[in-house]
Amino acid sequence: MNAEGRRGGYCAWHKGQADDVAPAVVIEQGSGPGGSAYACLPCARRLAQRPDAPEMLTTAVAEMEARADQPGQAS
Questions:
Q1: What pLDDT does 50 receive?
Q2: How far apart are the first and last CA of the chain?
Q3: SS3 helix, strand, coil % of the chain, rounded to 5?
Q4: Which helix (H) or strand (E) covers residue 40, if one does?
Q5: C-alpha radius of gyration, the chain, whole number
Q6: Cβ(43)–Cβ(53) under 8 Å?
Q7: Higher pLDDT, residue 10 or 71
Q8: What are the residues whose beta carbons fall under 8 Å from the beta carbon of 30, sequence distance 6 or more?
Q9: pTM of the full predicted structure?
Q10: Angle, to 10 degrees, between the axis of helix 41-48 and the axis of helix 55-68?
Q11: Which residues pair with 18 in a beta bridge?
């Protein structure tokens, strides 16, 4: 995570690197460890519009939008 609170990483939806990503989906398994798939802000916005979107995704979009709206930050 950098000074602006952004977590750069891989977006599983557009399959590329992004300056800021957040967990979009928690992957649960019957046995063994689960995992998470991360999305960048543009992809997370689209995912959050789905009727089955988890509440954590809506929260993550709001947090990423707040970071993007900080002075001197690109969206």
A1: 95
A2: 17
A3: 30, 25, 45
A4: strand 35-40
A5: 13
A6: no
A7: 10
A8: none
A9: 0.78
A10: 140
A11: 9
